[in-house]
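Below is how a single chain appears once it has passed through the pipeline. First comes the sequence as given, then the structure the pipeline wrote out for it. We keep one example in the README because the format questions we get most often are answered faster by looking than by reading.
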Amino acid sequence: MRVLGLMSGTSADGVDAVLARFSGPCASPRWQILASASRPYPAALQQQLIEAGQGAALGAAALLALTEAVTEQQALAARACDPDRQAQLVGCHGQTVWHRPPRDRQRGASLQLLQGPLLATLLGRPVVFDFRAADLALGGQGAPLVPAADQALLGRSDGWRGVLNLGGIANITLIPPRSGPERHARLRGWDCGPANSLIDLAVQQFSGGSLQYDRGGAWAGRGTADEGLIQAWLQEPYPQQRPPKSTGRECYGRSDLQHRLAQMESRDPADVLATLTGFAAACVAQDLQPRPIELLVAGGGARNQTLMAELRRRTRGTVVRPLEELGIGDLQREALAFALLAWWQWRNHPGSAISITGASSAAVLGLRVDPAARLSAADAGAGDGERPATAGAEPAAAPGTP
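Resulting structure:
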């Protein structure tokens, strides 16, 4: 089955799209990436999303307009990736603007902006969306959701295999070895802390908005990190919290940056960026338990050479290499994962792992919606409790569905 995956992460820099083919058993599918594309958000939209993700007050009309704009951008990315309309199904994560993990006696919740029925109608394809709700309803974190897909797509190696995504937030997957005494261990994964979120915000502030991120880590590379401050930050509640755990801009956003900048008052911007970059790498290194024999890195942060150098320095003994070497590009990993999660939803296969989210049970993730149907005059005239014979019927499987 050909499935299109769409993903926009906490960096809110745009939409990544992957068209993939899946077949075979759900737990270890045969897969192939057929096409991929990335479409940046317009600058004004990105800024609105970042502000919303940091708690900016929005009126109902503004929130509605923002949701519609995100949906339209997802459709444009889908068309750029799949101009010939090969996809039989679309999996779309939507744009997270607020994530509230469960704590104490308060249930968790997560808000992703997307109008699923509109996207399905714009693309003329069934869409699976709202992937986090089922896990949250079962008491889970609702995040991260990619680890189960990582294990299915990449398989196991001779030791623990780590998969790291460096987006706005750093999230890790730890896949147990294929043999040996730990082969029966559970899959692990969680959000480690900030990756690019604080770095990007600092670059935007120091450059007066002329730069959006530290290209290649060049600016941080000219500075010297404050190791004492990094070690102090590692003692904060979130880095010390035991999994399951998840976070986002609501924790590591502009207000958090201002708190850290106050501790580095009058420092050279290069030193500040070096310290924030070192902190991002240190959050990951501290969390690598058990220590994997290899760490496969994806996401925009994989192109930040200073961040990658810091990661290698702090994880000596682990081979750190790009995920791209296994055939999945930096900006393809999460979109491919949500394509797989959509395929799993179509086949009624659980997409969550209780060892990762802490939910009471695994769950089939996502809601599926078909394109809006245009009723005929006869259908539209049905009344007195009657409805068209096709209404409410199960959607037909797309051509080629296994």
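Residues 386-402 have pLDDT under 50 and may be disordered.

See the next section for the split statistics.
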